[in-house]
Write a structure and sequence with these properties.
single chain; 117 residues
């Protein structure tokens, strides 16, 4: 079961790479107000959701405790991220504050994950 957990943490990190990587490639454009949500960001956010939910299930099935408040906050932030990226996915220009919010929320979620032990 531990192998499965590590496998899904790995996939969870692939999701972060797609979401945050997509954001980082658009930072210059964001400064000019011409950034857009690239498809990889949507796929990354969806990957985070699927692998995150799977990780909760696998951990519970294996009788490992999961911090419900931490997971709840991460889930709430991801839903905001997913909502913004999904609704604006076809827009060629996304307003700077909105685009910046997605990057900031992703980074906040990373630090919640690693600092809240
Ligand atoms: C942008 C959103 C997210 C980011 C950046 C993120 C980031 C991370 C990172 C870096 C880890 C590995 C570090 C560690 O094991 O403590 C991790 C683990 C984990 N994540 Fe996420 N995550 C996100 C969303 C979610 C969601 C929505 C869920 C559940 C619905 C979730 C559930 C978990 C679980 C269960 C683990 C295993 C370790 C633990 O219990 O904290 N994550 N996440």
């Amino acid at each position: 079961m531990d192998v499965l957990i590590h496998l899904f943490v790995g996939l969870h990190i692939v999701g972060i790479a797609a979401l945050l990587g997509g954001f980082l490639t658009q930072m210059k454009a964001m400064g000019q107000g011409t950034a857009r949500f690239v498809p990889g960001m949507l796929h990354g956010a969806l990957t985070m959701l699927v692998t995150g939910v799977a990780l909760v299930g696998i951990n519970q099935a294996d009788h490992h405790s999961v911090n419900a408040i931490k997971i709840g906050i991460k889930l709430a932030l991801l839903i905001v991220i997913l909502g913004l990226v999904y609704v604006k996915r076809d827009e060629v220009r996304v307003e700077k504050p909105l685009f910046a919010a997605v990057g900031a929320l992703t980074i906040v979620n990373i630090f919640i994950a690693v600092l809240w032990t």
